[in-house]
Amino acid sequence: MKTSVGRYTWAIAEGYIPPASTGKSRELASHETVCILNASEQDARVEITVYFADREPVGPYVFDVEARRTRHLRFNDFEDPAPIPVNTDFSSVIVSTAPIVVQHTRLDSRQAELALLSTMAFAAD
Amino acid sequence: MKTSVGRYTWAIAEGYIPPASTGKSRELASHETVCILNASEQDARVEITVYFADREPVGPYVFDVEARRTRHLRFNDFEDPAPIPVNTDFSSVIVSTAPIVVQHTRLDSRQAELALLSTMAFAAD
Amino acid sequence: MKTSVGRYTWAIAEGYIPPASTGKSRELASHETVCILNASEQDARVEITVYFADREPVGPYVFDVEARRTRHLRFNDFEDPAPIPVNTDFSSVIVSTAPIVVQHTRLDSRQAELALLSTMAFAAD
Amino acid sequence: MKTSVGRYTWAIAEGYIPPASTGKSRELASHETVCILNASEQDARVEITVYFADREPVGPYVFDVEARRTRHLRFNDFEDPAPIPVNTDFSSVIVSTAPIVVQHTRLDSRQAELALLSTMAFAAD
């Protein structure tokens, strides 16, 4: 098994937190997620910068992803340095100190039946 | 943070504007979107050419994406040189003067409950 | 504008034609689609081979995609050398004589509200 | 036709088995799938390691994918060395002895109408 699967810099051009949910549980609330796999043998410090249409980027949002672990982070939960507004177009760039793999997923439950999208992020290095 | 994440030429083979919507707001109207992130330090001039099954390509559609900004453009809104017909298969090629990242997303609300798809575009250079 | 955006060999690991539809129109019938963009200046001859879980591959299915055109082909419509069975797992490899871009999309309307998925195919060369 | 389309190491950062289904058939039960195409002329031994947020990775789960065949494996069905818990974030790394192509698909039928997502996995070599 390789222990360093991944890249150091990723980007997601799409970003949007639906402003409403019909799902009442955390699982079924509308959410915008960045899934990070650190399959390497070293802990990763991950910095995410968020880009907007009409203002300067915000960040970095800093997260630790331990060696041999995954974290599925919701943009909805981002707080420091500032929450990400709902119903607003954004993009993100993810930079890591160890090789990671990044995937983007949205669950949209604005209507009674949920919708899903997912794509691998763009490996920029 | 790297300041030039991205590529100069991208392609999206799928393209389709649903001919109807149940959603009444702009957010929930059916739409076909190209999301562009310009994480570089220079403004980008972006030219999009649209390809069809049975006629010559149309374009370029020209957009400015400022440095450190994102724009989520709806094909539904394209007007110059010509609107894109609904219920018609198309593809697109996106060429930029600065490195960008491109992602394709559709929201389809022809029926009461919406459906979503998304994928990174193909980085052609 | 570059005139030869793309690659010559692509693969799609997922493949499945839903065995039923609630949509009555061709647009809303369940379908599995391979979208092909030929942005080059030469006509492309495209050969698609379909792989199954428990039998030898079938193909090639042969299609022409003219220069500067797109074709969104439904696996549902494939006939020669043999139709593709519904409700059956398959994969496909797409080989072209000119550079193309390939994207995979499914519309599933087995239930009253449709679901969508899409991803760029894997560029194998 | 090329006979060795693919790569040897793949990763999927997203992973989640919905904890419930409204669909009663196997086709419409919620499922998380890794689709593997072996378009090569040699049989592949595929080893999948599953990563979690808060514990050591589990695996390898070992599968054979014969030459010129596809297998669409459901994480729901994984048993040896251990079942994968539902409603739990995970990621996976897929290593093969022959070149393969890997795609990730989820069908979520927790609510009455299903939702779908799919993306090519990340080719790590």
Please describe what this structure looks like.
The structure is a homotetramer of 125-residue chains. Chain A has 125 residues and is mainly β. Chain A has a single domain, classed as TM1070-like (Hypothetical Protein Tm1070, Chain: A). Helix content of chain A is 0%, strand content 51%. The first copy, chain A, has no helices and eight strands. In chain A, strands 1, 2, 3, 4, 5, 6, 7 and 8 form an eight-stranded antiparallel sheet that branches. The radius of gyration of chain A is 15 Å and the shape is globular. At the A-B interface, strand 1, strand 3, strand 6 and strand 7 of A face strand 2, strand 5, strand 6 and strand 7 of B.
What's the layout of helices and strands?
Four copies of one chain form a homotetramer.
Chain A: E1 7-12, E2 31-38, E3 44-52, E4 58-65, E5 69-74, E6 90-108, E7 115-120, E8 122-123
Q: Give the largest chain-chain interface (CB within 8 Å).
A: A-B, 40 and 32 residues
- Distance between the ends of chain A: 22 Å
Q: Give the helix/strand class of chain A.
A: mainly beta
Calculate the mean pLDDT score of chain A and round it: 94
Helical fraction of chain A: under 10%
Tally the helices of chain A: what do you get?
0
SSE series of chain A = EEEEEEEE
Give a short account of the largest sheet of chain A.
Answer: 8 strands, antiparallel
CATH topology of chain A: Hypothetical Protein Tm1070, Chain: A
Low-pLDDT regions of chain A: none
Radius of gyration of CA atoms of chain A, rounded to a whole number? 15 Å
Provide the CATH top-level class of chain A.
Mainly Beta
